[in-house]
Design goal:
single chain; about 280 residues; alpha/beta; 5-stranded mixed beta sheet; 9 helices
């Protein structure tokens, strides 16, 4: 099975992918951006994809949410995976921290290590990279003669690209985790049984009636009145005009069963667009 992930080799996405049962049979398909990772399933370049959707320190991964909501209409979430995230400060060769002038990394990683960067590398410039593995790989491919560049990335990436780990565990909070979701073509890949017996549904909705007082309350009341528990709600700009938003909701239960199905149907009376992004086994 072809499985897309944010590449190149050595990213946290690949690290998480290899922890999944049956991963020995995967054919990895590295993609240069998260947007293209999601679209690999939409466009048929991969049968599945594993993408980050939420981090315990930095919150939701906006690119994943926006692409699922607005561009990948034929893609569904069919599972989730929670993976511990441990960042390393990496250099092409052992160097003293005090000589580092520039740190490369993905913005999510930089945010998760913000305190370390402020306190331990206060004079360093943080430069964004497409992924943590790209940041580590750049240390050897671009050739920085002054030897004063470092990157935030995985230990796996340091090993793959022949770099040195200067400091392990530089994330700001111990227990840092990222929730990944498995993507497949809608209707083509049935979710696997939930190991805990629990299910989760993710959906997105919006409506131009959102300017009316109480509109969002009325939408959410359809779930509350039926005893459906929401585990997450977040807004993102609708990208049509200023002041209008789309709302992402995770809730307990399956979209096609009982009170959840009733609530989703009732929500359609309030919103111009309601899309179930997927019903899938909860990670626990």
């Amino acid at each position: 099975m072809r499985v897309a992930f944010l590449g190149p080799a050595g990213t946290f996405s690949q690290e998480a992918m290899w922890t999944a049962p049956g991963s020995e049979s995967f054919e990895p398909v590295p993609e240069p951006t998260l947007h293209e990772t999601v679209m690999a399933v939409q466009e048929g370049r991969a049968e599945r994809a594993l993408v980050p959707i939420e981090n315990s320190l930095e919150g939701s991964v906006d690119v994943t949410l926006d692409t699922l909501a607005l561009e990948a209409g034929d893609v569904a979430i069919v599972g989730e995976l929670v993976h511990p995230v441990r960042h390393c400060l990496v250099a092409a060769a052992p160097i003293d921290l005090g000589t580092i002038t520039t740190v490369l990394s993905h913005p999510q990683a930089s945010g998760q290590c913000a305190r370390f960067l402020r306190t331990e590398l206060p004079g360093a410039t943080v430069v964004p990279a497409a992924s943590t593995a790209d940041a580590v790989r750049a240390l050897t491919e671009r050739g920085h003669p002054d030897g004063k560049w470092a990157a935030l990335g995985t230990r796996l990436a340091a090993q793959l690209y022949g770099c040195s780990v200067l400091v392990d565990g530089v994330e700001d909070v111990a227990g840092n985790q990222t929730r990944f979701v498995w993507l497949a073509r809608a209707g083509e890949q049935p979710p696997e049984p939930a190991p805990t017996g629990a299910w989760k549904t993710a959906l997105v909705f919006w409506g131009l009636g959102d300017e009316a007082p109480g509109w969002l309350v009325a939408c959410l009341a359809e779930f509350a009145s039926r005893g459906v528990n929401l585990s997450r709600i977040e807004s993102r700009p609708l990208r049509e005009r200023l002041g209008h938003y789309m709302f992402f909701v995770d809730l307990e239960g399956r979209a096609e069963v009982g009170p959840v199905a009733e609530a989703v149907a009732a929500l359609r009376a309030h919103a111009d667009s309601v899309r179930v992004l997927g019903s899938f086994p909860a990670a626990g």
